[in-house]
Amino acid sequence: MSHFKLGTIALCSLLVSACSSDTNSNLVKTEAIWSDILVKSDGDISKVVAELNVSSRNGNNINLVQGDKLSVTATNNAISANMTKNMDKDNKIFDIDYRANFPYYQADTQYEIRLYRAKDKVTLSSKVTLPEPILIFAPQAYQTFSADSALELRWAKATKIIGDQSLKINVDSTCKHGEKEITKSYNYNDIKDDGIQVVDFETIGLFKNEELNSNFTCTVKFSFERRRYGSVDGRYASSSRTYATQTKILENINITIK
């Protein structure tokens, strides 16, 4: 047996769920299909990603065959545009999903994702609309702040919140000195989307490390995500979901250590 096969077997023994085999769609009843559908935009383009598994998140990946297919229609009323695309299969290691890209990122652009079942001649339809793109006002890249002071994040607040729409901000710090690198993260989950968040580095403990001193060069990165959930066709397996996100990254904020 080759070293590659031995390595693959060893990896699969550690990641059992990730090494599950694929199942062709003609062998799966419609009500046993679990779907996870995401429309994600960075304020430039939108990517639609659909994963189909047997029964649940941990079930075998479903490979669409014999006329079964996924398609997407994007409707952008803001610019009176409409576009339909078939989703293409994307093979990744131990995983299968289906993808399509669109040039529409504006708020409330609707994406309808349809699964056509050729044998039964039925179409399952799930829909979601994009939340507003994220516009960050402050701080600006390459500004400098002290690790023992607070920083105010400011952005354009959401003007329309639908359902259980949420906003989260991840803060990642990186400090370097020679070959030494110290990283840490903090997550603000489901915060109020009102355009301001005070980040107190002392409180969240990003730079509480005995090894850190003024010799280190430190930066922080802020990752914003607005998330909005959509409708899921009732014929999919339970816990299926359809959701859309708008993301934005602010990086290269300099932090000084005293």
Describe this protein's structure.
With 258 residues, the chain is mostly beta strands. The chain is 6% helix and 51% strand. It is built from 2 helices and 18 strands. Strands 2, 3, 7, 8, 12, 14, 15, 17 and 18 form a 9-stranded mixed beta sheet that branches. The protein is elongated, with a radius of gyration of 22 Å. The termini are far apart. Residues 1-18 have low confidence and may be disordered.
Summarize the SSE layout with pairings.
Blueprint: H1 3-14, E1 23-24, E2 33-41, E3 46-54, E4 62-63, E5 69-76, E6 81-86, E7 88-92, E8 95-102, E9 110-117, E10 122-129, E11 136-138, E12 144-146, E13 150-155, E14 166-177, E15 180-188, E16 196-200, H2 201-204, E17 217-229, E18 241-256
Parallel strand pairs: 1-4, 2-18, 12-18
Antiparallel strand pairs: 2-3, 3-8, 5-6, 5-9, 7-8, 9-10, 11-13, 13-16, 14-15, 14-17, 17-18
Overall residue-averaged pLDDT value: 92
Q: What is the SS-derived class?
A: mainly beta
Number of helices: 2
Query: What series of H and E elements makes up the topology?
Result: HEEEEEEEEEEEEEEEEHEE
Give a short synopsis of this structure.
With 258 residues, the chain is mostly beta strands. It is built from 2 helices and 18 strands.
Index terms:
258 residues; mainly beta; nine-stranded mixed beta sheet; four-stranded antiparallel beta sheet; 2 helices; 51% strand
